[in-house]
Structures are given as C-alpha cells and as structure tokens.
C-alpha cells in the first residue's frame, strides 16, 4: 500500500490504462499502423503521470463496452478489465455508480454532466393543405364559422325587415315575400361578410342602420383575425425549426410517432433497466440499442436518445437540427476508475484536487469542450418560399375556377327558368 502522505513518486513504474473513445474526453488518431489519443482525459492522464512520475500504456476496451454486470454475475467492458486486474485504471468520460463501486474504485469527479433526452427539431413546414390550416387552432375555425353563419342570418333579417317596412323600397315584379326574395338578401349578406373575411371590398352595403353597424363590427373583427392569420402564416413559411412536441420523458413514452434509443453497457442503460418508475420502464422496454454516436438515427427524424449533455454540445456544432428536451433526467459524475482497493486512488485524488485549486482543470475544460454553437441564428433564418409551400394555393385556385364554372351554369339555368316563369305571368 502506497502511503500518500509519504510517497508522491511512483518511481517511473508503468501502469496499464484502458480507455474508450468519447469526444471530447478521448479522441483517437491513426496514421498508418500507429494510433495515438488526445482529449481532456489524455491531458489529465499526462498531468498525473508527470506529477507522480509514472508511465503508461494505453489500450481500448476489449469488448467495446463501458462497464456492465452480466446475467451470470461477471463484468463486461472496462469495469470487467479492472475487476480481473487486466488494467490498473480506466480513463475516459466514464461515469461512476454504486454498482460499479462494488468491484472498482474511482477518484473524485473531474466533470459533472446532465443526462438528457436528445432529438432533432421537427420540420416546421407541414405538407400539403395543412400548411394553410396550421396558423389557427381548430377551435378558432369553429368559432369563425359559427360567427359567420350567425352574422349572415342576422344581417339578412335586418335588411329584409327594413325593405318590407320602408316605403322607399316600392314593390316590383318581385314580391317582398317568398323564398326567392329571402334568398336574394341572404346572398347579399353572405357576399358582404365573406368579402370582409377574405380582405376584399364589400360589394353590398346594408340598407338598414343596424345592418351597417353590424358590418362595421364584422369588419373590425376580420381586420384583427386576418392580421393574426397572415402573420402566423408568414412566420410558418420562413422559420425552419419548430419546438419539440414534448417536454418530458413521461410525454415521450406516450407517443407512437417517435422511436428512442439507449447505448448498451452504459450507466444510463442500467438506470433505466433497474428503475421502478413506470416512465423509465416504458422507455427501456421500447428502447433500441444504439452505437456511441447515433447521429444518423437522430438526423432521420422522430428519434430520441438518452445521452450526456456534452455529446449534444459536440453534435450541435455540426448539426444545427439537434436539440434537447426540456426535462433533465439526472446528473453523471465522470471520474478515473481504478482497481478495487487500488494504492493509487489517494495519490490521484491529491493531484486532481491541486489541479482544481490551481485552475488547471478549468483550463483544460475550456480547451477541449465545445463552446456555444453558432446555430442559434440559423435555426430561425429566413428561407425562400418553395413550390411545396404554395402548391396548395394553386390547387385551391384551380378548384375555384371549377366551382365558378359550375355556379355559372346553374345561374344561367335559373335565369332562363325565371324568365320563362315571368313570361307566363305577363300573359
């Protein structure tokens, strides 16, 4: 046993170090047959080696796993190598846990990170005709429809009553009673109200004062409504991202349009596998086992990954579509792992504490960890309106031409019928 109060020099002995690639903690480089490593953890390892006078040989996890307990009670990954004394220490973005502490030791934490749900922004532009419906909630459309029908009925009644009661409107061939008379004034009211709703000049002016006041109120309401719709439609057409449609794990597991994943052999997998919380259990049951960097799955859309916040920050600098769910699940502590009852634990803790006090640890973090992403502006950048966005408008115009042609034919048929009936009346 090395006494940390007496011996701070390991005499140049060589230690076996196992690692696993995880940017920015450990990054591998190849040149032909040679491989070397850089990253925050490699700089920490060099600092320890220089301070305590030891050398080291570096190798990667034999089975590619961080450290998990198998069903037969044995250990896999870097934790298994420490437990079998195949390595003296494990250095990477390697989180600590009570289960791993049963068979290995670890130093004080050199980095603390949130466990998050990482995903990508959904496409802000809905396909087809729904683009023109999205600006308002369905309740708004329902309320507008009810108001429109009510206003049409009320305005028609006002004008019909005024015409019948006012001597300034003398009788003609058309009687001031009957279905045709009522339909004529109802159509005028419908046309006037619809014109205000779609932003065109009102072709019909109400003959009664009450009707004109009603039209003024309707026009004022249309002014506000149309402005709100136009503004939201414009915003939807130029903003390239929209919020994630859920804010927590409990909301995610209720959705059927999303898939999610978890990395095999990680502390997150163990946490979800052993949790008594129903949301964690549902997530674990449907989770896909992914690689260390499930970028392709995330970019494909409608996929969520349990990971650390540092992985998100690294990928955010490359892919502006990356985002995180609001809820933070837990916090990981990253430390250097050693064999159980290792004689080096206290020495390593001493050097790490001095490095923290002198600001060396913070300096190394600033050197290796990604700074803020420059994607903030690009997430809401103005984009040219594509054909996909406006094709529905052209389809609506074509349908309008078709409907207008049908109305024209019906109008001609009704006009001929009216003229025939008028001719018989004169005879």
From TrEMBL:
**Per the record, what is one GO cellular component?**
organelle
Q: How does it sit in the membrane?
A: Multi-pass membrane protein
Which residues does the UniProt record annotate as the domain Ionotropic glutamate receptor L-glutamate and glycine-binding? 24-84
Which stretches are transmembrane?
140-158, 178-201, 213-231, 389-410
Signal peptide segment: none
List localization entries: Cell membrane
**PANTHER family reported for this sequence:** IONOTROPIC RECEPTOR 20A-RELATED, IONOTROPIC RECEPTOR 60A
Identify this protein by name: Uncharacterized protein
Source organism (scientific name): Littorina saxatilis
